[in-house]
């Protein structure tokens, strides 16, 4: 379980930095969150809401991809949103096209790719690159996400590893669904996703991070949506998430916190 934040300390921090929040108890922020940082924002939400009177309406939304739920697709349809929490490189694109405010952008945590199996299933050896490759070739089925980690695996790592055609036939990208859930119900023997996205899923065992030589760090960041109707409250939320007080929750979610400036 994640550690609950000290409500009084949180309230003092927020009220000191944004005194107007106390006068806006009815404010609701719509937060679009990628799965990699969803665990952290959901854990922060109850104490944050109690301390500030600001309600967080959190919606799951991939950082990229063609699914209607993806953050770029939602914003393109002008869906209401105040804050986006997502892969940093994808956020940069939103900033560049004017959909997110550049001066509100904060980096929150580094994420790394892990592998999972169904709960109780044997855990393949991934301690070395040779063992990792053998485990992939021997697997009956492999699933990976359609977001940052899966794009890297499909287009960079797997081709670099020169895996067989038989492997390519049994590996598939999963759109708009946590890979861990696919593994938990037995639809894939091995699943790959960011550690922070696998940790909340019931019914799986996390084997561990893939080898360092195969690893790719993904940066998760946040920003205020340009069309936010509550930009001050949105900035206050991001300020808290980037503070030292939120670092423990971010770490417990499976991310490596970015040191507060």
TrEMBL record:
It comes from the Bacteria. InterPro entries: ModA/WtpA (IPR050682). Gene3D superfamilies: Periplasmic binding protein-like II. Keywords: Signal. The keyword Signal applies. Residues 1-22 form the signal peptide. This is Substrate-binding domain-containing protein.
